[in-house]
Amino acid sequence: MDNDKLIELKVLGITRNQVQMGAYVLLLEEKDGARRMPIVVGMTEAQAIAVHLEGIMPSRPLTHDLMTSMMHAYGIELQRVVINSFDNGVFTSLMSFIGSTGRVEIDSRTSDAISLALRVGAPVFTTVKVFEASSYDAADDKGDLAQKPLEKLSTRRLQTMMQKCIDSEDYEMAARLQKVIKSRTIQ
Questions:
Q1: Strand ranges in the chain using DSSP code E only, listed in sequence order
Q2: How far apart are CA 157 and CA 140, in angstroms?
Q3: Within the chain, which residue ranges are assigned CATH 3.10.690.10?
Q4: Pairing relation of β-strands 23-30 and 6-16?
Q5: Looking at CB atoms within 10 Å, which of 39, 91, 166, 169 has the fewest?
Q6: What is the pTM of this model?
Q7: Cα–Cα distance, 24 to 169 (Å, whole number)
Q8: For the segment 108-135, what is each residue's pLDDT rounded down to a tens digit?
Q9: Over the stretch 5-40, which tens digit does the pLDDT of each residue have?
Q10: In 10 A of CB 93, how many CB atoms?
Q11: What angle do CA 34, 36, 42 make, to 5 degrees?
Q12: Fold exhibited by the domain 3-134
Protein backbone atom coordinates (compact mmCIF):
# COMPACT_ATOMS: atom_id res chain seq x y z
CA MET A 1 0.00 0.00 0.00
CA ASP A 2 1.24 3.47 -0.89
CA ASN A 3 2.29 5.49 2.21
CA ASP A 4 1.44 8.91 0.77
CA LYS A 5 -2.23 7.92 0.50
CA LEU A 6 -2.52 6.89 4.16
CA ILE A 7 -3.69 8.85 7.19
CA GLU A 8 -2.13 8.03 10.55
CA LEU A 9 -4.56 7.56 13.42
CA LYS A 10 -4.32 7.48 17.19
CA VAL A 11 -6.63 5.64 19.57
CA LEU A 12 -8.60 8.07 21.73
CA GLY A 13 -10.48 5.47 23.72
CA ILE A 14 -13.40 3.14 23.89
CA THR A 15 -16.89 3.81 25.18
CA ARG A 16 -20.23 2.07 25.45
CA ASN A 17 -22.48 2.55 22.44
CA GLN A 18 -25.71 4.02 23.80
CA VAL A 19 -27.55 3.32 20.56
CA GLN A 20 -26.72 -0.36 20.02
CA MET A 21 -27.06 -2.67 23.03
CA GLY A 22 -23.95 -4.75 23.78
CA ALA A 23 -21.75 -2.76 21.42
CA TYR A 24 -18.94 -0.32 22.05
CA VAL A 25 -17.32 2.45 20.04
CA LEU A 26 -13.59 2.51 19.44
CA LEU A 27 -12.77 6.12 18.69
CA LEU A 28 -9.78 6.92 16.49
CA GLU A 29 -8.52 10.39 15.61
CA GLU A 30 -6.35 11.72 12.82
CA LYS A 31 -2.85 12.01 14.32
CA ASP A 32 -2.34 15.63 13.30
CA GLY A 33 -5.92 16.76 12.90
CA ALA A 34 -9.35 16.99 14.42
CA ARG A 35 -11.23 14.42 12.36
CA ARG A 36 -12.40 11.29 14.13
CA MET A 37 -13.37 7.83 13.01
CA PRO A 38 -15.72 5.76 15.21
CA ILE A 39 -15.66 1.97 14.87
CA VAL A 40 -18.37 -0.16 16.48
CA VAL A 41 -16.93 -3.26 18.19
CA GLY A 42 -18.37 -6.04 20.31
CA MET A 43 -17.97 -6.45 24.05
CA THR A 44 -15.11 -8.98 23.84
CA GLU A 45 -13.14 -6.85 21.39
CA ALA A 46 -13.75 -3.75 23.50
CA GLN A 47 -12.51 -5.57 26.60
CA ALA A 48 -9.29 -6.67 24.85
CA ILE A 49 -8.55 -3.07 23.87
CA ALA A 50 -9.66 -1.52 27.18
CA VAL A 51 -7.51 -3.91 29.24
CA HIS A 52 -4.44 -2.60 27.47
CA LEU A 53 -5.48 1.07 27.46
CA GLU A 54 -6.18 0.97 31.19
CA GLY A 55 -2.92 -0.83 31.98
CA ILE A 56 -4.66 -3.84 33.52
CA MET A 57 -2.45 -6.92 33.85
CA PRO A 58 -4.61 -10.08 33.75
CA SER A 59 -3.37 -13.08 35.73
CA ARG A 60 -3.05 -15.07 32.50
CA PRO A 61 -2.30 -13.62 29.05
CA LEU A 62 -5.24 -12.70 26.88
CA THR A 63 -5.19 -13.78 23.22
CA HIS A 64 -3.52 -10.57 21.98
CA ASP A 65 -0.92 -10.76 24.76
CA LEU A 66 -0.19 -14.37 23.76
CA MET A 67 0.18 -13.31 20.12
CA THR A 68 2.58 -10.54 21.18
CA SER A 69 4.68 -13.04 23.15
CA MET A 70 4.80 -15.40 20.18
CA MET A 71 5.83 -12.58 17.84
CA HIS A 72 8.69 -11.63 20.18
CA ALA A 73 9.77 -15.27 20.59
CA TYR A 74 9.96 -15.80 16.82
CA GLY A 75 11.39 -12.41 15.87
CA ILE A 76 8.27 -11.18 14.10
CA GLU A 77 7.51 -7.47 14.09
CA LEU A 78 4.16 -5.85 13.39
CA GLN A 79 5.21 -2.84 11.35
CA ARG A 80 1.81 -1.23 10.86
CA VAL A 81 -1.91 -1.68 10.61
CA VAL A 82 -3.88 -0.23 7.71
CA ILE A 83 -7.67 0.01 7.93
CA ASN A 84 -8.21 -0.61 4.25
CA SER A 85 -11.91 -1.34 3.81
CA PHE A 86 -15.24 -0.03 5.01
CA ASP A 87 -18.09 -2.00 3.45
CA ASN A 88 -21.67 -2.15 4.73
CA GLY A 89 -20.59 -0.70 8.07
CA VAL A 90 -17.79 -3.26 8.56
CA PHE A 91 -14.12 -2.25 8.74
CA THR A 92 -11.30 -4.62 7.78
CA SER A 93 -7.55 -4.15 8.09
CA LEU A 94 -4.23 -5.37 6.81
CA MET A 95 -1.49 -6.09 9.32
CA SER A 96 2.04 -5.80 7.87
CA PHE A 97 4.55 -8.12 9.52
CA ILE A 98 8.27 -8.62 8.93
CA GLY A 99 10.27 -11.59 10.11
CA SER A 100 12.97 -14.04 9.07
CA THR A 101 10.95 -15.15 6.04
CA GLY A 102 10.37 -11.59 4.83
CA ARG A 103 7.35 -9.31 4.76
CA VAL A 104 3.76 -10.53 4.83
CA GLU A 105 0.37 -8.79 4.99
CA ILE A 106 -2.47 -10.53 6.78
CA ASP A 107 -6.16 -9.63 6.56
CA SER A 108 -7.72 -9.01 9.97
CA ARG A 109 -10.69 -7.69 11.85
CA THR A 110 -9.88 -4.08 12.67
CA SER A 111 -10.48 -4.54 16.39
CA ASP A 112 -7.93 -7.39 16.53
CA ALA A 113 -5.39 -5.47 14.47
CA ILE A 114 -5.67 -2.38 16.69
CA SER A 115 -5.53 -4.44 19.88
CA LEU A 116 -2.28 -6.02 18.69
CA ALA A 117 -0.88 -2.71 17.41
CA LEU A 118 -1.46 -1.07 20.78
CA ARG A 119 0.45 -3.84 22.55
CA VAL A 120 3.52 -3.61 20.32
CA GLY A 121 3.46 0.13 19.59
CA ALA A 122 2.81 -0.24 15.86
CA PRO A 123 1.25 2.71 14.02
CA VAL A 124 -2.33 2.56 12.74
CA PHE A 125 -3.27 4.07 9.40
CA THR A 126 -6.31 4.22 7.15
CA THR A 127 -6.77 5.00 3.49
CA VAL A 128 -8.09 8.37 2.38
CA LYS A 129 -11.13 6.61 0.86
CA VAL A 130 -12.04 4.80 4.11
CA PHE A 131 -11.41 7.93 6.18
CA GLU A 132 -13.59 10.10 3.95
CA ALA A 133 -16.42 7.55 4.14
CA SER A 134 -16.36 7.06 7.91
CA SER A 135 -14.90 10.10 9.66
CA TYR A 136 -16.27 13.37 10.96
CA ASP A 137 -14.77 16.64 12.16
CA ALA A 138 -14.69 16.66 15.97
CA ALA A 139 -15.06 20.46 15.98
CA ASP A 140 -18.46 20.02 14.35
CA ASP A 141 -19.89 17.87 17.14
CA LYS A 142 -21.90 20.73 18.56
CA GLY A 143 -21.41 23.29 15.78
CA ASP A 144 -23.54 21.21 13.40
CA LEU A 145 -26.46 21.38 15.77
CA ALA A 146 -26.76 25.12 15.58
CA GLN A 147 -26.19 25.43 11.84
CA LYS A 148 -27.92 22.47 10.19
CA PRO A 149 -31.37 21.01 10.77
CA LEU A 150 -30.99 17.64 12.52
CA GLU A 151 -33.17 15.98 9.90
CA LYS A 152 -30.56 16.73 7.21
CA LEU A 153 -27.77 14.84 9.04
CA SER A 154 -27.14 11.14 8.45
CA THR A 155 -28.26 8.62 11.06
CA ARG A 156 -24.64 7.60 11.62
CA ARG A 157 -23.69 11.25 12.22
CA LEU A 158 -26.61 11.71 14.61
CA GLN A 159 -25.58 8.58 16.54
CA THR A 160 -22.01 9.81 16.84
CA MET A 161 -23.17 13.23 17.98
CA MET A 162 -25.57 11.67 20.49
CA GLN A 163 -22.73 9.62 22.00
CA LYS A 164 -20.60 12.77 22.30
CA CYS A 165 -23.46 14.58 24.02
CA ILE A 166 -23.87 11.71 26.47
CA ASP A 167 -20.13 11.64 27.14
CA SER A 168 -20.15 15.38 27.85
CA GLU A 169 -23.36 15.01 29.92
CA ASP A 170 -25.45 17.17 27.59
CA TYR A 171 -28.49 14.94 28.06
CA GLU A 172 -30.98 17.45 26.73
CA MET A 173 -29.29 17.52 23.32
CA ALA A 174 -28.78 13.74 23.43
CA ALA A 175 -32.53 13.32 23.92
CA ARG A 176 -33.24 15.58 20.91
CA LEU A 177 -30.86 13.54 18.78
CA GLN A 178 -32.35 10.26 19.97
CA LYS A 179 -35.83 11.50 19.05
CA VAL A 180 -34.71 12.21 15.47
CA ILE A 181 -32.99 8.83 15.21
CA LYS A 182 -36.07 6.99 16.52
CA SER A 183 -38.32 8.85 14.09
CA ARG A 184 -36.30 7.25 11.27
CA THR A 185 -36.40 3.73 12.62
CA ILE A 186 -39.95 3.48 13.96
CA GLN A 187 -42.26 3.68 10.97
A1: 6-16, 23-30, 35-42, 77-87, 90-99, 102-109, 124-127, 136-137
A2: 10
A3: 3-134
A4: antiparallel
A5: 169
A6: 0.72
A7: 18
A8: 999 999 999 999 999 999 999 999 988 8
A9: 899 999 988 888 777 777 888 999 999 888 999 999
A10: 25
A11: 155
A12: Bifunctional nuclease domain (3.10.690)
